[in-house]
Design a protein that fits this description.
The complex is a heterodimer of chains A (448) and B (48). Chain A is mainly α and 448 residues long. In chain A, 73% of the residues lie in helices and 1% in strands. By secondary structure, chain B is mainly alpha-helical. Classes of the chains: A mainly alpha (448), B mainly alpha (48). Strand 1 of chain A pairs antiparallel with strand 1 of chain B, so a sheet runs across the interface.
Chain lengths: 448, 48
Amino acid sequence: MSAPVAPPGWSRWLVPPAALSVHLSIGQAYAWSVFKPPLESALGLSGTQSALPFQLGIVMLGLSAAFGGTLVERHGPRWAMTVALVCFSSGFLLSALGAATSQYWLIVFGYGVVGGIGLGIGYISPVSTLIKWFPDRPGLATGIAIMGFGGGALIASPWSARMLDSFGQDHTGIALAFLVHGLTYAVFMSLGVLLIRVPRPRPAPAGAPDPAAPGSGDGIRVSARSAVRTPQFWCLWVVLCMNVTAGIGILEKAAPMITDFFATSSAPVTASAAAGFVALLSAANMAGRLGWSATSDLIGRKNVYRLYLGAGALMYLLIALFGGASKPVFVICTLVILSFYGGGFATIPAYLKDLFGTYQVGAIHGRLLTAWSTAGVLGPLIVNWLADREAAAGKEGPDLYALSLGIMIGLLVVGFLANELVRPVHPRHHLPAPAAPPSPKEATHGTD
Amino acid sequence: MARTDPHDPPAAPSGRRALIVFSWLWVGVPLAYGVYELARKATQLFTG
């Protein structure tokens, strides 16, 4: 399948909805927990077992993004979105078969392995194309798409719950729900497959800014293979890993954390208020993806990460010092941290574009997402293990988290320093400029 | 030096405009539903 080149007059504002149709779908992964209780009761599973499809899906997301990135660059966004559509929907259909026949391994394989490949390929599929369409606002463009990944869970969570209420929570009802999910997402994602186009290459107009100007990324061509050999790649890996670890530590433990913080206060937090807090964090996460990433177009990528990591550390410090005494301080600081968490995800493709150019930015982004997988293990591990240890030592309230908060501040400082070390990539890693492209008429001929 | 120009002819034909509206509604309506459900849940922090 060749990369579909946009015909004359094609609006670039058709590209973000194409990207969103994929990201809003695959973002469903974060709503997997809706299926956990029905699966546990219908198939007699433990909590650990019912989490397996999601965990495997996230592992496969990281692996397929890391190893499939070069294929995505080679075959183009339409191929990648088609693979994502087929894998993600097939994952649900296989899961439906597994639920209908009470074969749990089929759900694990379908949703976790097959669906997980769809997650990874789908996640990186529109990134490079969006950056090419929006060279003037790459942060805004990738922010819109990556916000969609956060938004996907917001849609799927109530939708899946209502479906299970209607179909029943036995294995037949679950199978039917999986079937409807698979078919609906196939139709929904098909918009992305049909709409996606890559921009037509054309000669730079006279008087255009120097494309090799430092910081813009235009004119720089670094392959994914070379990028992973540069210190810049690994500095950004550390930056992303530290930022995500800090955010995920709160996100994963949000409800018990706010309850514990105010358990001994005059106004303890109820279970439903804690659920509301978690929802508010999701909103901050999503808003940060769009808002901060778009802001990075104005203040620069390095500065915005200084904000995420520096101000993030300050927010953690405020929680540690005053969070237990003031609910507004606790809530505002955690919301800011979660907005930085989302912003960190959404801004990284534009940062990569600045450093390595658009040539294989999708593949480089895919490889960088291994930082996300690492943080996904590291963040919850730190917070949960330390909270359990402090509880066993007889501590309670905010004291349960004091050490975790200190560690998060340390991690953010490490990330801040890594960001400070980022410099333009040495020209020895640059590939030579390509030969002059064919005229637009020639470029569009027979490519779509 | 080659570069890509995302700014093709400024005014999209009316058929394209309809496609733009349709595609944004396609993704915007489900997202609005998700945000609405989220807002309903988030209010529990202040009322719960």
